[in-house]
Amino acid sequence: MSQATSKRLSFLLLCTLLLVGPAQGKSPLPAPSGEVVLTVSGEVGLTNVADEAHLDADMLAALPRERLTTHTSVTDGPQTFEGFLARDLLDALHAEGETVTALALNDYLAEIPVADFERYDVLLADTMNGERLTRRDKGPLWIVYPRDDHDELQDIRYDYRWVWQLYRLEVE
Ligand SMILES: Nc1nc2c(c(=O)[nH]1)N[C@H]1C(S)=C(S)[C@@H](COP(=O)(O)O)O[C@H]1N2
Ligand SMILES: [Mo]
């Protein structure tokens, strides 16, 4: 089985778990088996550890993969990012709210309107130019806006929402 097929199957499995889980009144999200990369808390429908969703790399890899090439305010020239859409993550977790607080390992945080994720294909990137983002350098996840596709995103009002070293989202 190709890697793409097996990714697709695990995504389908995740969707099935997400759909049938709540009806059965069970915890629908499997517990993470690897190191937790991203925690989502707050108004989250699906949880696995207390009232939070703790997601390891395999669980995140099961979300549909997206690619985006854009300039950033901190690099020279366009960079190609890969990861998953913020919108797809929130949908998969049945997270519903107005605002997401994005927290970074370096204690930076930014409040982001959920409307951004509906209006734009905002990526939670885990690779840049084919190289995995590490915690030393913008990893494990970097919030990347499709800056080159929308003039209004080329603005300081959006730059501060490009949280790198992202490890936690709080949905309110
Ligand atoms: N983790 C983390 N992400 C961050 C920041 C930060 O300090 N830490 N600074 C933000 C701000 S205020 C801006 S304008 C952009 C670009 O930051 P820089 O110009 O300070 O490099 O990244 C944003 N993402
Ligand atoms: Mo900034």
The level-1 CATH class = Alpha Beta
User: Ranges with pLDDT <50 over ≥5 residues?
Assistant: 21-26
Instruction: Name the strands of the widest sheet in spatial order.
Output: 2-1-10-5-6
The CATH topology annotation reads as: Sulfite Oxidase, Chain A, domain 2
Number of helices: 5
Mean pLDDT: 91
Protein name: Molybdopterin-dependent oxidoreductase
Keywords: Signal
Signal peptide: 1-25
InterPro entries: OxRdtase_Mopterin-bd_dom, OxRdtase_Mopterin-bd_sf
Task: Looking at this protein, list some descriptive labels.
5 helices, Sulfite Oxidase, Chain A, domain 2, five-stranded antiparallel β-sheet, binds molybdenum atom, alpha+beta, 172 residues, globular, binds ligand MTE
Describe the structure.
The chain has 172 residues and is of the alpha+beta class. The chain has one domain: Alpha-Beta Complex (Sulfite Oxidase, Chain A, domain 2). Helix content is 26%, strand content 30%. It has helices at residues 3-24, 57-61, 86-92, 114-119, 156-159, and strands at 36-42, 53-56, 66-70, 79-85, 99-104, 109-113, 123-128, 131-132, 142-144, 166-171. The protein is globular, with a radius of gyration of 16 Å. Residues 21-26 have low confidence and may be disordered. Ligand MTE is lined by residues 73-74, 104, 106, 108, 159-160, 162-165. InterPro entries: OxRdtase_Mopterin-bd_dom (IPR000572), OxRdtase_Mopterin-bd_sf (IPR036374). Residues 79-146 form the Oxidoreductase molybdopterin-binding domain. Residues 1-25 form the signal peptide.
